[in-house]
């Protein structure tokens, strides 16, 4: 079976992991610091905090922003359940904002309308909004940040798909802050937090780079970074200036909040650091796979593709085709039967039984629901061979006829 996504592990990656295994510290050692520093440099941000998964990073990002019982968090229904579960872990209420049918990311128009109507009806406004960079392309962050300023919410980017992606700098944007990094002319890397409080990456094996399991939260705010570090490790601090009373001595630490053990190992961090050196190569390969698919599918009247707006360059984590609803199941099954590991991203979160038990219903987010009845994720990863891709293209076009 050709998988829809898979990691690319080199001999250098293996050597980096083995070197940590032969060293004194296999967790809480120097590889974590090195990986965090390398990611922060790569995306042009001051602070990066590694964890054992993006799910954990989303959770401690919410906690660092003081999300708790009585608060509301809004996100996209077209995402993995972790995007909204993070808020539920904090005891907050979750609500969703429908997607834009062309970008498949959160609709800024729908967000704006929902905020406006909540304000008019004196309903609760969100404390945090979590835009999801679906498929590896950035949401329109400058406009979302602008709404954040107007309605007083914080922003956590779920960039699980999008390390290596870029977003345009609008120098005349009212919510613009000084440009931190610039790798592609007017485009700057997702993760630099120019328009967000915290940005979260995933290093699961199907994502752009991997640590086996792992995640990272980036931020420009030192206080948020420190809080994420504390929540990552039991709510414990060893820094005298973070303690409530003077230190008792060199052994002393204080637990000042209820944290978790969400630490990444040095084994994983060494893999991540080695993978990061090939990030550009991975993204280029993904883009060329996507471009070849585009050439075959873009003008096909039965296929609709995710549109990439001019303000972003995608890291191409996913390649999704929308096919006619009436043929959806049949095409999916045919491709699977031919050894093509197609997948579906995503089942709308609000239609999961757990979310339905909280009162969500079919029909609430029609664009995400319609999309779900048409979507198929085709294989895309750096090691996908030309021959395999030819087979996928041929089999899909045949199944569509
Ligand atoms: C993969 C993913 C996550 C969770 O990442 P983990 O590292 O597996 O915890 C969260 N959000 C989105 C959009 C994802 O694709």
Describe what you observe in this structure.
With 401 residues, this protein is α/β, with parallel strands linked by helices. The chain has helices at 11-21, 30-43, 54-64, 82-89, 108-120, 141-151, 222-232, 266-276, 279-297, 328-337, 353-356, 366-372, 386-400; strands at residues 47-51, 72-75, 93-96, 128-130, 154-158, 166-168, 187-189, 198-202, 215-219, 236-237, 254-255, 304-305, 312-313, 319-322, 375-378. 36% of the residues lie in helices and 13% in strands. Residues 171-184 have low confidence and may be disordered.
Q: Nutshell version of this structure?
A:
The protein has 401 residues and is an alpha/beta fold. It is built from 13 helices and 15 strands.
Characteristic terms for this protein:
401 residues, alpha/beta, 7-stranded mixed sheet, 3-stranded antiparallel sheet, 15 strands, globular, binds pyridoxal-5'-phosphate
């Amino acid at each position: 079976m050709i998988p829809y996504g898979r990691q690319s592990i080199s001999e250098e990656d293996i050597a980096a992991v083995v070197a940590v295994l032969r060293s004194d510290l296999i967790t809480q050692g120097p590889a974590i610091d090195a990986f965090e520093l390398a990611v922060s440099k790569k995306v042009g941000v001051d602070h990066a905090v590694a964890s054992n998964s993006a799910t954990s990073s989303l959770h401690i990002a919410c906690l660092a922003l003081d999300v708790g019982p009585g608060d509301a968090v809004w996100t996209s229904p077209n995402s993995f359940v972790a995007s909204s579960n993070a808020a539920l872990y904090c005891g907050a209420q979750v609500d969703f904002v429908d997607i834009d049918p062309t970008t498949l990311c959160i609709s800024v128009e729908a967000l704006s309308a929902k905020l406006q109507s909540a304000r008019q009806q004196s309903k609760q406004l969100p404390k945090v909004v979590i835009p999801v960079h679906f498929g590896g392309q950035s949401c329109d962050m400058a406009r979302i940040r602008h709404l954040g300023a107007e309605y007083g919410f914080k922003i956590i980017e779920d960039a699980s798909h999008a390390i290596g992606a870029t977003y345009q700098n609008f120098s005349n944007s009212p919510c613009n802050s000084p440009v931190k990094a610039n790798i592609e002319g007017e485009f700057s890397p997702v993760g630099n937090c120019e328009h967000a409080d915290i940005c979260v990456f995933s290093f699961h094996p199907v994502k752009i780079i991997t640590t086996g399991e792992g995640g990272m939260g980036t931020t420009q705010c030192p206080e948020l970074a420190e809080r994420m570090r504390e929540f990552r490790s039991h709510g414990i601090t060893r820094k005298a200036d973070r303690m409530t009373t003077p230190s008792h001595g060199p052994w002393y630490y204080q637990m000042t909040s209820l944290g978790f053990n969400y630490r990444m190992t040095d084994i994983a961090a060494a893999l991540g650091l080695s993978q990061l050196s090939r990030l550009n190569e991975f993204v280029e390969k993904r883009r060329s796979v996507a471009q070849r698919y585009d050439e075959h599918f873009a003008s096909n009247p039965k296929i609709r593709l995710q549109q990439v707006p001019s303000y972003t360059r995608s890291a191409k984590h996913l390649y999704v085709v929308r096919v006619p609803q009436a043929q959806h199941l049949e095409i999916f099954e045919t491709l699977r039967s031919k050894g093509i590991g197609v997948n579906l991203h995503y089942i709308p979160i609000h239609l999961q039984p757990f979310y339905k038990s909280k009162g969500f219903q079919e029909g609430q987010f029609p664009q995400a629901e319609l999309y779900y009845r048409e979507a198929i994720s085709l294989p895309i990863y750096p090691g996908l061979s030309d021959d395999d891709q030819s087979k996928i293209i041929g089999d899909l076009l045949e199944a569509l006829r």
